[in-house]
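Case study B.
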Amino acid sequence: MHPDRCFDADPGVRRVARELYEGTRALPIVSPHGHVDARLLATNEPFANPAALLVTPDHYVLRMLYARGVPLESLGVAPRDGGSFERDPRRIWRRFAERYDVYRGTPTGLWLDQELFELFGVRERLTAESSDRVYDAIAERLGSPEFRPRALYERFNIEVLATTDAASDFLEHHEAIRRSGWHGRVIPTFRPDAVFRISSRGWRDAVGALGASAGHAIESAEQLVIALAARRAFFKSMGATATDHGVMEPYTETVSAGEAEQLFERGCRGEATVADQRRWEAHLLMMMARLSADDGLVMQLHAGALRDHDTPLFERFGPDIGGDIPIATEYTRNLRPLLSAFGSEARFTLILFTLDESTYSRELAPLAGHYPAVRLGAPWWFHDSVEGMTRFLDRTAETAGVHKLAGFTDDTRAFCSIPARHDLSRRVQTNWLARLVARHIIDAADARELARLLAYDLAKRSYNLET
Amino acid sequence: MHPDRCFDADPGVRRVARELYEGTRALPIVSPHGHVDARLLATNEPFANPAALLVTPDHYVLRMLYARGVPLESLGVAPRDGGSFERDPRRIWRRFAERYDVYRGTPTGLWLDQELFELFGVRERLTAESSDRVYDAIAERLGSPEFRPRALYERFNIEVLATTDAASDFLEHHEAIRRSGWHGRVIPTFRPDAVFRISSRGWRDAVGALGASAGHAIESAEQLVIALAARRAFFKSMGATATDHGVMEPYTETVSAGEAEQLFERGCRGEATVADQRRWEAHLLMMMARLSADDGLVMQLHAGALRDHDTPLFERFGPDIGGDIPIATEYTRNLRPLLSAFGSEARFTLILFTLDESTYSRELAPLAGHYPAVRLGAPWWFHDSVEGMTRFLDRTAETAGVHKLAGFTDDTRAFCSIPARHDLSRRVQTNWLARLVARHIIDAADARELARLLAYDLAKRSYNLET
Amino acid sequence: MHPDRCFDADPGVRRVARELYEGTRALPIVSPHGHVDARLLATNEPFANPAALLVTPDHYVLRMLYARGVPLESLGVAPRDGGSFERDPRRIWRRFAERYDVYRGTPTGLWLDQELFELFGVRERLTAESSDRVYDAIAERLGSPEFRPRALYERFNIEVLATTDAASDFLEHHEAIRRSGWHGRVIPTFRPDAVFRISSRGWRDAVGALGASAGHAIESAEQLVIALAARRAFFKSMGATATDHGVMEPYTETVSAGEAEQLFERGCRGEATVADQRRWEAHLLMMMARLSADDGLVMQLHAGALRDHDTPLFERFGPDIGGDIPIATEYTRNLRPLLSAFGSEARFTLILFTLDESTYSRELAPLAGHYPAVRLGAPWWFHDSVEGMTRFLDRTAETAGVHKLAGFTDDTRAFCSIPARHDLSRRVQTNWLARLVARHIIDAADARELARLLAYDLAKRSYNLET
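Model:
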């Protein structure tokens, strides 16, 4: 692990980058959006084994192996039909180790290298030959108290960690963390996607679950919004500062109350079409913005993933195993109704994420460069790489200004990857600033302030985490 | 203001960039497309005050403050309903000064810094604390004869300045400049957008105004084209060398005479739809290309801005206050009819501008790399930044060749920003060429010639300004 | 010709790039996709003259001159109507030499410079003044035995050269090469585009020709697929390892047998519409994938060129004279049916090419980063330039991994440009790797392996050329 990794080769840039990075590397980690399971920190049980920690549950890791022909069963992923799969973690680990070269030059490789080196003290390359030794070294550490989740949370210097939770979630793990007296700040995020998907088979169940959690039956679109408002209030009481919404297309439109009820009824009868869902989602996004302008929960929008692209694989293994593929995404027209209505509201913040980099300079930076409510979420998913993060900064900051970015979000399920992800992000951010300094576009004092903003302050401010 | 600002840190690149830049910095400014008001140079009255010069009328400046929550009223923008707004220029200036950090790292910031330093001799940072001193220093200068518009035109070393004018404009300010005996070359550009928008409420008035200016009533589509031809001839007699057309979508199609008349009639009855407008615009673009192939006026096409995206803000303040947002734009299919008909005509030049950078390498460079008539307009609006201009050159020059670029256009309303905009452009262009030299892709002699082309010759040639 | 051309100016990057390049420059050339005419190597006749070799047949060369106003007739291109055109090769060459500056900074210029210098030993700049001397020097060499096609094949160190051939081609030139006893490996590629274009006038003739070559009449969609399977077997027996498919849109869908027959019948009656063609192509792409999964021929897909954009020029000169323009292209949704059906088949390889760079990171890299069958074809056509190839690597490798790229394909008709094209590609690839090494993202040993992969191994593996 070279101390100057990811910094430009040019000595002038590198010197500045190194200095800026040194000023941010020890800042606490603010993680306002991710998918760590709160149960981890509620129970504080040790991690089971290296494969269950680093391989089997991480779709970033799985997809690169699958794409090279490694069956998911051999990596410990259980088929839904009860078919056989590898259960021996040491063999799963070996399969991973044998093909560790697939991660060369990828962000996943940079994260894994750093985890192995810094967290687990591994000092040799992971290969088929070293597989068992590395496995044993990690397994030994996982058994020690210092590697329990809460101890790691502290060692990682995490200041706040947001999870992502269904609207009907009772947040019992968040509650357990609170009651435990442990000081870690683990907060929920309100994600009501299930009740948005009115044309899917699971919609009625999702509405039922929402009603059960809200304490009243939901028999109309209006009641559904009332239930959502109640759940938002509950999430807020549990520390939430944000909501999150995943949609294919960020389409918004003012839908009349009458039409909303018709859509609701078609959903109840199981007759809602894909076109109905488009309008229903448009309606609920408007409702969510209206509630956010009222209750102050920051609204996140993740658009543009076509989920479960590989139909047979989805049928065999379920979601989240690496088969989601981005699509071209339109923001300018789609968000116009929502932004015309709420984009200048003082209490409203909308954080936009995309998987379509062509929108960075064409749509997202101009939107953030006009509407007070809009901030730009970090380069997402396939784009939180060295080049991807640099492209994001290059394409957005000149038009929107650095202050309109929302800071870094690691968006990860993989708890132990959090420090490496934030470290890589800080390296890229400071290197990007160093290029501006070296070209005399900003001065060193500006760069130090902006480095701190990008690493820490922007995430706290954008997600209302300053109190 | 560092003398090497915007040049790469690499010493090899920087040395070449500096030398190339020194060879272009003193070249006269050719400004073939922009929005300076000709009245400025006709009356030659002093600028009123620093705020009225630099803040209130410049939507580049306004939008960055608005996006950070600063109300437009506080920046001196008057609501259309007669509501109150800040009228004290010193207070407007202070509001601007307090938030001057929003421009850090943005092209607007680079332009403003250079204006303050070079034009107004300001030697301290603009902050809340320095606000009044800077205001007084600028105000004092604005009162002196050297800061009258014509004196500045000369000091800026402007060789030609094109304005943008409605088709029905009587060009009395251009006429006054001519009659005054002053030697400055201030020429109009023919922009008939108002008669393109057949589905808008103002269309009939626009047609009426066009008829009045052309000296005959317009009662058919055919008469409308005849009137446009007459007005083009008048503009040409006043020095115009180009037309300009702003459309959402650059759709073109051969529309029959009969259908054109039907569209015209629906427009007259106030019944034209958005679909009608699309065909009407397609028809008029074809007519304008035909007339350009005949009268030699260079045709500019600016496509892809969704104007007045923020509906309530537009209703409150009107257009051009920063709320225009780009959309994805298609050129290959849309321009095929026009280019098949006129793209190889000897007298025809079509200069294409885009707000959608994904079209640079996919559509625009290949079109310019085939059709003799096509040239690529400078990176427009949100993209005339350091990174934006570099991306444009990287994505177009290899396929189209530098000679098919149209040179730099500043496209500004802000008269005093013209030198800074051209200077930044020349810095980026020469740095881009220096990278080619340093990689031995072109040699130093080629680079000197190309630097001059990009800074000066291409604009003159592309806009027929050589005579 | 500077030995370090195309390498970064930074000394740290350049040193590594130079070393990596030296390790790959002498590797044999694997050319698995291109358009060289097999007759050239079958007859082994000398090239006629410099113009017929380097100017008239190369649309890369022609379009840059045409775009600057040089008539195609003056470059030796024959109008279809029998109109006059320049027949004197020396005059054609002079026209080319006079305007040689149009190629400055373009990939075509880099290739031509290298051909003139390295292959033909030209040591002066090509200009109007030097035109005749250079012509004579080249013409003299073309007359010598060392400049016959087979001698050049050997001098170029070509290991395998794939041509592109119609499905009904009898491959007599490939057969002649085989029978001649010459050791060169010149293999065909199966490209059945003509029978895909069911709405075009030539479709019935193409079906007839396919039937004739397959030895049976084709009277149904089913028989057509059977004939294609037979021809694939024949191509394979002649050394083919791949198919190729050119479509505007990579749309795929499972079409029922009944519907396929209805489409076929409408095609036979000359009644197939553009919409019919879309479904027919979708159907045949599915069939081709099914056959590839069976016979192991690698499937190449080239999507997104709008052919013959300039209608009058096409009517005057026919296809392939530089008037093809890219369009925005969608892969995620369009390929879903095909990839869900075959994307994880062990024997199936699908190599995707695009002219729409916005899909690199948004769609293509994620698809290759999931589906075992998918590999990414080299930056195609307008994008095989220094910046274009660098963008491709930057946007795909982090997400898909270098191993999922298909290596370089020169895609050229211009036999003598092959070494220069591969050399440029190797320079860009090693410079890109050197940037990773200099930033400590990969180490030097990894870089050496990846350099060899990119220059040689990936093409062999991806196209099943290892045996």
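The interface with chain A takes residues 2, 4-10, 63-64, 66-69, 102-107, 110, 306, 309-313, 322-328, 355-358, 382-383, 385-388 of chain B (CB under 8 Å). The remaining cases will be described in the next quarterly update.
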